[in-house]
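Entry for the shared binder. Reason: the reviewer on the internal report wants the predicted structure included alongside the sequence.
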Amino acid sequence: MSATTERGNSGRGGITRVLAKLEASVASGNYYEAHQMYRTLYFRYVGQKKFTECLDLLYNGAITFLNRNQQSSGIDLAILVVDTLEKSQEKNHELWIQRMGELLAKTSPAAVERETLITRAVKWSADISKNQLGHPLMHKLIARIMWSEGNIELARHHYLLSRDGVSCGEMLVHLSRNKGYPSETDLFIAQIILQQLCLKETKIASETFETYTKYHPKIARTEPPFVMPLLNFIFFLLKAIETNGKLAMFKALCDLYKASLDRDPSYEKYLQKIGIIFFGAQPPQQPGMGGLFGNLFTRMFQSMNEEEDAMPQQQHQQQSGSGGGPNTRSRRNDASSELD
C-alpha cells in the first residue's frame, strides 16, 4: 500500500472516529463538546474541499442543536453553512435557500446571532442570484417567518423584496384589517405600490394592487370607480405605465389627485422617481441652485434611475410589531430606506 493511500485511509478513519464521538456527545447531552467536534469536521472537510459532505453535516448539526434549543451552537453551525456555500460551487441554490429558511424558522427572535445569520444568508442569496437586494425566494421565506412572529415591519420589508405580488397583497389586506383604521385602507396599498414602481417592479405592483383591491372587504373590486380617490390614482398610474403614457398624462394625473397624494408627504419623492423612470421627467431643479452647485444637484438626481442597483441592505433590527396605520413613525423604518 502506498504512503498516499495510507494517509487517505487514516484521514477517513479519523473523520469516522470523530463522527462516532460526536453522536455520543449529542446523545449524552454534552452539547459543548459536540459543537467543537462539528467545527473540527468543518475545517477538515473544507480543507479537503469536500463541500457536499460538509454542507450536509453542518445542516443536520444545526437542526439537531436548534431542535434542542441550543440556539447559539445551532446558529453558529447555520452561519458555517452559509460560509461553506460561499466557498463551494454548489449549484442547487433553491434547495439551500429552502434549507436556510428552515434553519431561520427554528431560530429564536431573541438570539443575538440571528441578525448575523439573516444578513449573511441574504448576502449569499444576492451573490448567487446577481441581485444586490437578495434572492426573492430568500426574502419570501424570511417574510413568512417575521410575519408568523408578529414582526410586521420586517415582514413588510421582505415581502416588498420577494417579487410575489399575491402574497404581498394578501399580507397588506391582513395588515390593514387588523392594524389600521378604515380611513387608511387606501394608504396601506398606495405606499407599497409606489415603492415597487421605484424598484421597476411593474408586474409585481399590478399583482399586488389587484390582490389587495379584490380581497379587501372594504373594496372588493379591481377596477374604477373606487370610492377612495387614491385607489383610482394608483389604478390609472399603473395603466399609464403599462401603455407607455406620456409625461403630460403623468403630470395631469398627479395634479388631478393632488389632494389625495398630499395625505402622505413621502409620496412626493416616490413620484419624482417614477416620473424619471417611466415618463422621461427631468430631475427637479432647486431654486437658486445655479452654476456649479446646480450642476452637482442635477447629476445627483440623474443617478436616481440606477439607485436600486446599489441599494444597501436594510439592517435587520428587532422591531415592535404593534400597529396603527401607514403614517405612524414606526412604519417609516421599512423598505423606503432603499428607495430614497
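Summary line for the report: The two ends are 67 Å apart (CA to CA).
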